[in-house]
Design brief:
3-stranded antiparallel β-sheet, 10 strands, 2 domains, alpha+beta, elongated, 3 helices
């Protein structure tokens, strides 16, 4: 515990904690608090806004890297540099972080989830940029909800066109 309390808090930009129920005391979960639940995140991602010095700071008890490595201890810690379109991923091994090497696809395997993390260049939300994305362990891009619904919409349009070409007017 620190004074003020927020001095002792580290809030990653993105994190995933497996095996934490979606409901807490019968109510939908609105937060996750490490020191109350004692389950470390599997992966923590920090998005660099600046030089990345803050995300790599190993100063004992104050630096983000130190806090993640020695206090929070997620299995994986990722630093995503948006401007450089690059990822550094570390795996927690023997009480310290070790840099993970990208596979032949340029992705980083996240053991225990069966997924890979990497950079994808493409259009998302009407912006053609490099995006941080997930793939399955075979290298297949995992689609967002919008991409999945768009694929389904296109399938339906194709089917309607095929029915109409065959002289059948679909009942919509």
């Amino acid at each position: 515990m620190t004074e003020p309390p927020e001095k002792g808090a580290e809030a990653p930009d993105w994190f995933y904690v497996p095996n934490v129920p979606p409901n807490l005391d019968g109510k939908p979960r609105r937060s996750y608090v490490l020191w109350q639940e004692f389950i470390a995140p599997l992966i923590v991602l920090e998005f660099v806004s600046g030089s990345g010095k803050e995300e790599r700071d190993r100063t004992p008890w104050v630096g983000k890297f130190f806090i993640y490595e020695q206090v929070i201890r997620p299995a994986f810690y990722g630093i995503y540099e948006v401007e450089k379109s690059s990822i550094e991923l570390y795996r927690h091994v023997a009480n310290k972080f070790e840099l993970v090497v990208a596979n032949e696809r340029g992705h980083y395997a996240i053991d225990g989830l069966g997924v890979e993390l990497g950079i994808w260049q493409g259009i998302y939300q009407n912006l053609d940029l490099p995006w941080l994305r997930w793939w399955d362990s075979s290298g297949n891009l995992l689609l967002t909800g919008w991409e999945t619904s768009e694929q389904e919409r296109q399938k339906v349009e194709t089917l309607i066109a095929q029915l109409r070409a065959a002289g059948i007017e679909p009942q919509l």
